[in-house]
Amino acid sequence: QKDPDYLKLWLDNFVSSYEQFLDVDFEKLPTRVDDVPPGISLLPDNILQVLRLQLLQCVQKMSDGLEEQQQALSLLLVKFFIILCRNLANVEEIGMCSYINHVITMTTLYIQQLKSKTKEKEVADQTPIEEFVRHALAFCESLYDPYRNWRQRIAGHFLSTVERSRQKYKPASLTVEFVPFFYQCFQESEHLKESLKCCLLHLFGAIVAGGQRNALQAVSPATMEVLMRVLADCDNWDDRNPEEVSRKAELTLKCLTEVVHILLTSSSDQRQVETSTILENYFKLLNSDHSALPNARRCRQWESRFIALQIQMLNTITAMLDCTDRPVLQAIFLNSNCFEHLIRLLQNCKVFQGHLDSLAVSTIQALTAVMHRSPAAKEVFKERIGYAHLYEVLKSLGQPSRELLEELMNMAVEGDHMAVGILGISNVQPLLLLIQWLPEIESHDLQIFISNWLRRICCINRQSRATCVNANMVIRIIETLNSHSALHCTCAENLIVLLGSLGSQSMGSEELLQLIRLLRTEEPKRAHPYVVPVMRAILAMARKQGMASALQYFNLYHSMAGIAVPSIHKWPGSAFSFNAWLCLDQDRVDPSTTSKSGKRKQLY
Fold first, then answer.
1. 423 pairs with which residues across the strands?
2. pTM of the full predicted structure?
3. What is the pLDDT of residues 368-384, one digit of tens each?
4. Nearest 5°: phi and psi at 464?
5. Which end of the chain is more exposed for a tag (fewer CB within 10 A), N or C?
6. How distant, in Å, are the alpha carbons of 58, 176, 443, 444, 485 from that of 438?
7. HEC states along 405-473?
8. How far is CA 339 from the centre of its chain?
9. Are 114 and 199 in contact (CB under 8 A)?
């Protein structure tokens, strides 16, 4: 305490001995080290009190400017605290002291200094200041995310609830200084390095991922305003590093995803911000009016960046919906008019010159995510938007790519379209859309690819055929075959084989009449090119295949399906009996039924 030189020497030796614990790079997973730093009880007596006074003196001298020696001491102190916190048993006690508030005060002043130096275009070396800021943010991470949950998340490792419950030590309580500090750092942030902004975003993500209590304190109207402003700034790159700006957008979106997931697990009295408010601002930004921008900014390069940001935002919607409380979040998305926003995005993007297909693919992915395994969401989409309108919007974007068509296939099976035989039809409407689109597609290879896949997925089992028949797919196929001049012969044959398979399941008089009319030609003596394949299809419908089966039956495939009987007092007598054959399709495996959380049908 009386010999500052000896104190500095002791700190130097301590930091050098445990230097491997100074993993201040947020982008890297923490290194696994067998040894741990000592507990506080093993340190010299009163050392924490001495260090607090040293730190306080540095804060008091900040306004006059720290000398080089004092700058070095303050950095050494922060390194010492980071190392100490890597022994997780020390975190709570360190967090209760005033160190963090002193460090935040110094970091705020340093960041203001960095912004003003950039603003005034001073070229002095700012490396020591930047180094202190990075270590200060890493110190905050050590307190509020001791198990490095955020770094794990960024690296793609998702911790289960069981793994989280095994984390013995809790993060320190978040200081009230954090939210004002975070907000202040992003004021006039155009003068701050993109890499430092990324560090600040990493810290916010770490606080949210570290523990629910701190997360709900950090997720406030002020911090959400900052995240939306940072996101909006990502389409204006100026002379900044494009990779750093793109990374900043990616981190902001990962922070928002983490925020949404935390809010879902909290009660309304705990939240400062509602998920619906975040989504409202999110969609507003996604559909921001680019026509209001001056022409100088609306260049081809800016359009490319803006679309890249929109695609990142659309992909984040899918990430947000990948959570345990998916039905609850789907309902919030529906109440936020997400379908209208997504369709409007496709309509507005026609003014851009390129990348439209990538944007359309990401939009379809987002629509699929919102409707995934939700009959209610599918009905809402049909009522509010309708697949006929979706078809017109997609067609207005020009000739579709294979990627866009495959995404519509994925929407139909709510998974990978290549997994035919594992995934059945979950949403038949995209299939009808694809059949309708076939004559408009100029590529014969794409026509053959689509029709071949439709033939396989629609005929895979009784369930799929029944779904297609109930959706009036037969009429849609006949309408498409009427445009035979625009269809490749292999595509037409695939559709006719599909028609025969569906017709063997069920064929109405109106559908049969339309099929016969299809074969009419303007020249009586000239046969229609479809005569032979259509006759084969009609013979296939008439032919008995496999075991005898009922023509009318209950479909109990859906998880909520069942047979309701009237209440007992409405029964005609004291009891009644009900007899039925049971038919089980064994040629389709539903992945959800094989998982631990899957449901199985029960017979009573």
1. 420
2. 0.90
3. 999 999 999 999 999 99
4. -65, -45
5. C
6. 72, 60, 9, 9, 12
7. HHHHHHHHHCCCCCCECCECCCCCHHHHHHHHHHHHCCCHHHHHHHHHHHHHHHCCCHHHHHHHHHCCH
8. 16
9. no
